[in-house]
Amino acid sequence: MRYLTRHNLTVSGTHSSLDDLIHHYEETVAYHKAIGNRFYIIPGANLSSQEKIDSFIAAVNPLCDKLAKEGITLCFHNHSGEFKPNADGSVPYEQLLYRSKIALEVDAYWAFVGMGNPIALMERVGDRLKLIHIKDGLKSGQGFPLGMGEAPVKEVYDWAVAHNIPLVVESETLTPDGITEAKICIEHLASLE
After folding, report:
1. Which residues, in sequence order, are bridge partners of residue 58?
2. Average pLDDT of the chain?
3. pLDDT computed for residue 3 by the predictor
4. How far apart are CA 122 and CA 86, in angstroms?
5. What is the DSSP string of the chain?
6. How would residue 172 be classed by pLDDT, with cut points 50, 70 and 90?
7. Contact in structure between 102 and 75 (CB atoms under 8 Å)
8. Among residues 101, 80, 99, 88, which one has the least CA distance to residue 151?
9. Predicted pLDDT of residue 83
10. Which among 5, 14, 44, 159 is least buried, having the fewest CB atoms inside 10 angstroms?
11. Is the separation of the CB atoms in 108 and 132 below 8 Å?
12. Pairing label, strands 167-169, 103-107
């Protein structure tokens, strides 16, 4: 917390382990409360079968209620695979929407890769949408800094602003290096205003 205070930073959310909540609930919640985190985001899970989806939903539903009492919202961060049918025909994201209580952090780029239209997804998610990862890249799954790919970055940005949903820039390609990539992303976001 001292580091955050010293640098005038606030926590927008964390990508954190479901296992920590299951096996170390008290310590995990205490830590996230201490740093002022309101969004505990599970950054993906193995949802490759109906059995695994069932197990995940059975674990997160009671945690959603427990964390809400602590002032923390439990969220799930998608990648592209959750939109596609598993070998057994189950579609993970559909079941997260209809069977779970979990809030959602939509990664607009992976939604673009996985199902084509992140705006339609964000509309559909409704008030369970808490944060948006805005990033760029090709439909093939190759990431790029903002403004250098083919994802609908401007449309996602405009939608998020119109609906007052916080945006988190996630760009991990290090193209050509981390600092330069961050500068490219900041300049591109400024150009969208």
Report:
1. none
2. 95
3. 81
4. 22
5. -HHHHHTT-----EE--HHHHHHSHHHHHHHHHHTT--EEEE------SHHHHHHHHHHHHHHHHHHHHTT-EEEEE--SGGGS--TTS--HHHHHHHH---EEEEEHHHHHHHHS-HHHHHHHHGGGEEEEEE-EE-TTS-EESTTSSSS-HHHHHHHHHHTT--EEE---S-SS-HHHHHHHHHHHHHHH-
6. confident
7. yes
8. 80
9. 98
10. 5
11. yes
12. unpaired
Sorted by where each starts, the structural domains of the chain and their CATH numbers stand as: 2-192 (3.20.20.150)
Compute CA 24 distance to the chain's CA centroid, rounded to the nearest angstrom: 22
Contact indicator for 6, 34 with CB cutoff of 8 Å: no
Q: How much is the pTM?
A: 0.94
Nearest in space to 96 (alpha carbons), one of 109, 78, 120:
78
The region that residue 154 occupies, defined by phi over 0 for left and psi between -120 and 50 for alpha, beta otherwise, is alpha
- CA distances for 11 relative to 40, 44, 66, 131, 181, angstroms: 11, 20, 21, 13, 22
User: CA-to-CA distance for 58 and 62, rounded, in angstroms?
Assistant: 7
Q: Is the pLDDT of residue 151 over 90?
A: yes
pLDDT, greater one: 5 or 143: 143
121: its two tokens: 């997804």
- The neighbouring-strand residues paired with 69 are none
